[in-house]
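so my prof wants the structure for this chain in the tokens format not the other one, which i didnt know existed until like an hour ago. anyway here's the sequence
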Amino acid sequence: MSTAEGAERYGELAATGPYGIRPGHALITMVEPHPGHEYAYNRWYEDDHYYAGAMAMPWMFAGRRWVATRDLQELRTPEKSAVAQPVTAGCYLSTYWITDGRYDEHMKWTVAINKRLNRDARVYHDRTHVFTSFQDHRATVYRDGAAGPRDFHALDHPYAGLVLQVVDCAGPEEREALLERLAARELPRRLAGSPAAMVTVFRPTPLPGDRMTYVKQVEGVDTRLTLLWFLERDPRDCWAEHFADLGGLAGEEGRVELVAPFVPTVPGTDTYVDRLRR
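here's what i got, hopefully its the right format
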């Protein structure tokens, strides 16, 4: 295919299929740089991978990076987590929205581009993927009803913090029952009067068989929910009052395997890197 023919193909692809703004899917990835590699990892992600490995891709329309300094890591629960071992592992979190209905097209591109980046020595290997998965959107619950930013704004709005919560259920039926209860009752009750403006709820999808080998296959595809709480205040200032008891959120339907607070990174800087360890 010539360059001109390739350019024409882009026009054909853009003219068909869904192109709404709803975040129908997400990439949620929590990563731990290996000891001694914190600065190099941050610079690689800030200066290259956030763009070449994410935002430049088709149908990935919003993204944001978050960081957990050591004091934030020490707020995490439960002590024995099925997600992070130890529970403090994973000091960087990246969240991305993908256009609803464009998951398959995006996955074709992301697998291909990451293989190319790896061949070109543009993948930083001194890191561990603690929790990385593509996910399907299931619900968004707002504190203020129709007022305020929507979920498609969430990764661009200057929220002061985020809480990542992972819940495992006994099976698919229990997960659906929990999701119904959360969306209808529990999340609206907890959001009322809290510093969290919204909660988005996702369920993980399996990674393709031709994924990069350094990313492990997703666990809990049929049993797990992932919640993102978007905060208008620094989580350290309101943790005890509003979020320390999130471990009881699952009730009888499941078990909360991670509650982890983060603050946003400052793009283009090494802010917070010197506060990741003791």
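also thought this was worth mentioning. The mean pLDDT is 93.
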